[in-house]
Design goal:
The complex is a heterotrimer of chains A (320), B (337) and C (289). In chain B, 43% of the residues lie in helices and 18% in strands. Chain B is built from 14 helices and eleven strands. In chain B, helix 5 (118-126) packs across helix 7. The radius of gyration of chain B is 22 Å and the shape is elongated. By secondary structure, chain C is mostly helical. Helices cover 75% and strands 0% of the residues of chain C. The chains are: A mainly alpha (320), B alpha/beta (337), C mainly alpha (289). Chains A and C meet through helix 1, helix 4, helix 5, helix 6 and helix 7 of A and helix 1, helix 3, helix 4, helix 5 and helix 6 of C.
């Protein structure tokens, strides 16, 4: 093959390839920047819409737990508290359960069972949130009301954690909202976990089995570390939904602007406050609700930042 | 590729035919009147071919949208004041009447047996009357066996015209309520838990023993929720029903209310139900789209004349004839038609 | 000694596996419970009128206009957010994995995930609905198109997140192998890597669909709702979640039944779409061995 003939043409080809590569890269970058623009646009529009309340009296909005639409005195402490507590309960419950389901679906269940069960779990994600709310209101709240006396009698008697389970057994409140949220975010976390567990190279798992590992040890020591970053991504996906969920929470949270030590007491959350009051709000009240929307961006930012820093420390400890 | 092509065709088709049918008009606002307006709209469309698309996005939303000019009429449970109307060149008039009832769930007390008055109701919602056998309640209900149980108050968690009229009533009859809480679509509730919508409040009342709340009359009736009777401004105990709502509307002083800015709570009539409410249709006096505005007026005129039966079937009360004629002369003098 | 260690390991294993089975059971119980309640409450309303009557007729009405509106807006939303989301996710995984820009976008995408949907709806109201209204002198204000954009904003971060994760799990050896063959990077990305991650990317798109199909709040101020039938994307458009929301607020118990039936429809719609897509995309599943 005469080299003189091929070199220019391959040169040309690599030039076209390089150009296509640049275009492709440009297209991808543009799309990624759209995500950036969407978030910044949404966040800035809430900042603008809420400016009247956010910057009034310095940090009053951030430091006060008052919420009085009649005298136009607003503070965001109670909604922030409710958002964090319900999301935390939801994560604490949903992560282990999702992990269990993903484990069952990838390692234990017979093959014929995997598809149907996985689809069933994903169906949980497609139930509209207003239905979670109605189910919560008509069915789950009475159910919780029937078991809460038991919780108060057992867990409520314990030192330290006892305070969390005091109060009248109304069935609604932070704990109920947290559980409903857990069910809602479960399919998101679970689908991602299942999907990534399947990507672990079979030879990795099989070498471990060959060394005599049990199924649990393979999952805990091989599968989980291999997929850790994606699993955490899935958890963030769930956390994101929990922090921003409105309709379902609104129906079961009790909607009281108060900060309590008991999980059985009613509370409120940022997104349910917005969903509750936005439609009828005018003037400063509307501005206060939009300011709450901005605060949710800030709260999410802080929560994610803390999560990131903790992960980085963990990674450093493990010597990565 | 196929997707992109389809999208392009789609977008092109969409841009090709921008204008919607000229006879489609749009309204938005109060959820209180949503059932009756949508019922009217269906019949009106059959009669005239004109389609009135009304969406209950809330009174606040309705006011915001009419100000932004994105809808042909707004509907609000709270009347706009003189200054706002003048500033935006708007006018307002009432459309239909409904009632709000205190609903309760007390062991051993049958629905309809409990009697309350405004001060007692305010005391309960303030939390100062905390038990069912409180002398204030017992005094109004001689012979009724009231339990020695704590009262759980249930209020609306979402901003609503129902809450506005309810708190407006409590503010009128009780100075402490007025000073401590006041009136609004959402207020700083001194006691109790919040349920979303009529369905949220009534579900909590059913589930929680010894609870009390308030819901729209139509909702209580259709869903068989026990409601209380009230002692009205004239000192008479009245039952919530069409006649007592109508009595409230008829005895309210509409003739002296500029732009119909008047709330019917605590009406003076002997048979008046004390928590009677209406909502207001809000429109531009100089409409940007004259054709749509004309259809809007035609729709409400049709509703006043032909929609009464439908309103009654949904447990609303049609406006009294005197008020309708007052509205129609208001249209002539205030609006450019 | 060694047998006791072995016994302990086996016991731990059995406990863990049992718990994972129980977790699955718990998930299924909640699903069955919610579906049962939905079915029980909506049963009375299930019938042909759901598909033939419009919402305007209230007590005698159905959901046909809402079904059509939801189909149009959900698909439009997917057509907007799936390509953008997949491409953006690809950028993060393949081109910006360890760059500052990549980290920033990834972080902001996670925040977008939790943005309350009503806020995103308001944002679209400000950037789409109001300008359209100004531009057309009120002829076009709220529209199915604006609704679809709001829904797309809700689905977008879900797709970005999953695409990114799934691509990162494709082994680096596959990348190196294709690049060493002299294939340009875009070709390697599209034809090899994205193909290897198809199943995961499809899962992401379906999760996005599941999430956006049930949203009410962002549609109120964008698509608005319409009691009458319309297929025009620039018209005000009804959707199932908005219809459900209106019906549950209504005093009439008959309408509550229609609301529950509507919820069942959304769930079945997402189920059908997810089964169909799985059938189409996951026939050739790639294993990385």
């Amino acid at each position: 093959m005469p080299a003189a003939d091929t070199i220019p043409s391959s040169d040309q080809r690599s030039r076209t390839d390089a150009r296509h590569d640049a275009w492709f890269r440009g297209l991808l970058k543009f799309c990624a920047l759209l995500v950036l623009a969407a978030l910044l646009g949404a966040a800035l529009s809430t900042l603008w819409g809420g400016r009247e309340v956010l910057f009034k009296d310095g940090f009053h909005f951030l430091a006060s737990d008052a919420w009085n639409p009649v005298s136009d005195d607003y503070g965001a402490l109670a909604p922030i508290f409710g958002t964090l507590v319900t999301s935390l309960i939801a994560l604490v419950l949903a992560v282990p359960v999702s992990f269990g389901i993903a484990l069952f679906l990838t390692e234990i269940a017979p093959t014929w069972l995997r598809g149907p069960v996985a689809t069933a779990i994903e169906l949980l994600a497609s139930i509209p949130s207003i239905i979670y709310g109605m189910w919560g209101l008509f069915v789950f709240v009475p159910f919780m009301a029937s078991i809460e006396p038991m919780l108060s009698d057992t867990l409520g008697k314990l030192p330290l954690v006892g305070k969390l389970f005091e109060g009248p057994p109304l069935g609604l409140g932070l704990l109920t909202a947290g559980i409903v949220l857990a069910v809602m975010i479960l399919p998101f976390i679970c689908s991602v976990m299942r999907e990534v567990f399947q990507t672990v190279p079979v030879r990795l798992k099989e070498s471990s089995y060959a060394l005599g590992s049990t199924t649990w040890e393979v999952v805990w020591d091989i599968v989980l570390p291999y997929t850790r970053s994606a699993v955490i991504g899935g958890i963030f996906l769930g956390l994101g939904r929990a922090l921003g969920e409105t309709m379902a929470v609104t129906f079961v949270l009790g909607n009281a602007y108060s900060i309590t030590s008991s999980l059985l007491m009613p509370g409120t959350s940022i997104s349910s406050s917005i969903a509750n009051e936005f439609n009828e709000a005018v003037g400063t009240h509307r501005s206060a609700l939009i300011a709450l929307g901005f605060l949710l961006f800030v709260v999410t930012f802080v929560v994610l930042l803390i999560a990131r820093l903790m992960l980085r420390r963990l990674a450093r400890k493990e010597g990565h | 590729m196929f997707r992109l092509g389809a999208l392009a065709v789609f977008v092109a088709a969409a841009l090709g035919a921008v204008s919607a049918q000229a006879t489609d008009i749009t309204g938005a606002g109060s959820s209180f009147v949503y059932p009756v307006i949508s019922k009217w709209s269906a019949s009106y469309a059959e009669k005239t071919g004109n389609r009135v698309n009304y969406q209950s996005i809330g009174s606040g939303g309705g006011i915001a949208q009419i100000k932004a000019g994105t809808v042909d009429f707004g509907a609000s449970d709270m009347p706009l004041d003189e200054a706002t109307l003048a500033k935006f060149g708007l006018g307002q008039f009432p459309d239909v009447i409904g009632g709000i009832v205190p609903a309760f769930n007390v062991t051993g007390v049958a629905p309809g047996k409990l009697v309350l008055d405004g001060k007692t109701l305010a005391g309960i919602f303030l939390g100062t009357i905390a038990k069912w056998n409180d002398p204030a309640i017992a005094g109004l209900n001689p012979g009724l066996k009231l339990p020695d149980a704590k009262i759980t108050v249930v209020h609306r968690s979402d901003g609503s015209g129902t809450s506005f009229n309810f708190t407006n009533y409590l503010s009128k009859v009780d100075a402490t309520w007025k000073a401590k809480v006041g009136e609004g679509t959402a207020v700083n509730w001194p006691a109790g838990i919040g349920g979303k919508g009529n369905e949220g409040v009534s579900a909590y009342i059913r589930q929680i023993p010894n609870s009390i709340g308030y819901v729209e009359y139509a909702y209580a009736l259709k869903n068989h929720i026990g409601y209380a009777r009230m002692k009205n401004a004239a000192g008479k105990v009245v039952e919530p029903k069409t006649a007592s709502f109508q009595a409230a509307a008829a005895t309210a002083d509409w003739a002296h209310a500029k732009n119909f800015n008047l709330l019917m709570t605590d009406a003076p009539g002997a048979d008046a139900w004390p928590i009677t409410a209406t909502s207001w249709v809000i429109m531009y006096k100089q409409p940007k789209n004259a054709a749509n505005s004309k259809v809007s007026f035609d729709f409400f005129k049709w509703a006043y004349e032909n929609g009464q039966e439908q309103a009654r079937s949904l447990d609303y009360v049609p406006l009294p004839a005197s008020l309708v004629s007052q509205i129609e002369s208001y249209w002539k003098t205030e609006f450019k038609q | 000694m060694s047998s006791s260690v072995y016994l302990r390991r086996r016991i731990v294993n059995v406990i863990a596996l049992t718990l994972s089975g129980l977790a699955t059971l718990l998930g299924l119980v909640f699903l069955a419970w919610i579906l049962w309640v939905t079915l029980k409450n909506g049963f009375g309303a299930i019938g042909p009128r759901l598909f033939t009557k419009i919402t305007a007729y209230a007590d005698q009405g159905g959901l046909s206009n809402a079904i059509v509106g939801s189909l149009i807006m959900d698909l439009m939303a997917l057509l907007i957010c799936a390509p953008i989301g997949v491409l953006a996710g690809t950028f993060l995984a393949e081109y910006a994995n360890r760059t500052r820009l990549g980290a920033t976008i990834r972080f902001l995408n996670d925040i977008l995930l939790s943005a309350p949907s009503i806020v995103l709806g308001l944002f679209v109201y400000v950037i789409v609905v109001l300008p359209m209204s100004k531009l057309t002198h009120g002829a076009v204000s709220f529209s199915g198109f604006a609704g679809a954009i709001a829904l797309a904003l809700i689905g977008l971060p879900v797709i970005v997140r999953t695409t990114d994760e799934m691509l990162q799990l494709v082994p680096g050896t596959l990348r190196e192998a294709t690049l060493s063959l002299g294939i340009p990077q875009w070709k390697s990305t599209v034809q090899v890597l994205m193909r290897a991650a198809t199943s995961g990317i499809v899962t992401g798109v379906l999760l996005a669909l599941a999430r956006l199909a049930g949203e009410t709040a962002p549609l109120l101020f964008t698509a608005f709702g319409n009691n009458f039938m319309t297929v025009h994307p620039l018209d005000k458009m009804e959707s199932l979640p908005v219809a459900i929301y209106q019906y549950t607020n209504d005093p009439s118990p008959d309408l509550h039944a229609i609301a529950w039936a509507g919820a069942l429809l959304i769930t079945l719609f997402v189920l059908a779409l997810s089964l169909l897509t799985r059938l189409l995309f996951t026939r050739h599943k790639v294993r990385y061995d």
